[in-house]
Amino acid sequence: MTGPLTSTSKASKRSKLFFLKQYLRNPFGTGGVAPSGRQLAKLMVSKLAPQPSEVIVELGPGTGAFTRELLAQGVEPANLILVEFNKEFVKFLKKEFPNLRIVEGPAQELPQLLKTLEQASVKKIISGIPLRSMKPKECRQIAMAVAAVLDAGGILIQFSYFKVSPVPKAVAAEAGLTGQCVGSALNNVPPAFVWQYTKSA
User: Band of the pLDDT at 189, cuts 50, 70, 90?
Assistant: First the structure.
């Protein structure tokens, strides 16, 4: 057991140091002072409830906190697609997860990005994008892009450092998404709330 634990610990230290450097360069674009903690990652993935045959899209993976938990909970590498806008995070992710499909580009262009992988739609999306710190126009564009690729009944799991919906109600309604807060990770730094959005039929 020493090997895996040591490897996980080293990965965590690498992630935290790299994340801090990116935060200092671009605080608003990064959205937090540290990678999401294990409690939040476990909660996010448990609410996503990934099934073996499902393709999962992760938006804004950063340094891979949710990615590691998705893999730990049995998601097959071939079924996981990471979409990251930050070039430096993309480089980091490719080194950490050489067997995963990692797409560089903005979440606003999610439909086009998935088409490059011949993936028209998905049932489940997990997101670490700091929607509450983005401009309203950008938040709306991301919500619409997510709705465009979600199957009917599909879900988006999104976290926020605020208890209010990270996707404004009017925007969610326009996108055909119904949201509710499904849990909290109060030990996370800072404390976080998990929201689930379901695509209407």
Answer: confident
User: Which pLDDT value is given to residue 36?
Assistant: 64
| H/E segment holding residue 153 | strand 150-160
pLDDT given for residue 35 in this prediction: 56
Q: What is the dihedral of CA 67, 154, 116, 113, to 10 degrees?
A: -70
Of the options 3.90.1150.10, 3.40.50.1100, 3.40.50.2300, 3.40.50.150, the CATH number for the domain spanning 2-23+33-199: 3.40.50.150
Number of residues in the chain? 201
| Residue 152 near residue 199, CB atoms below 8 Å | yes
pLDDT of residue 66: 96
Q: Give the closest residue to 87 by CA, choosing from 102, 67, 66.
A: 102
Measured in whole angstroms, the distance separating CA 177 from the mean position of its chain's CA atoms is 17
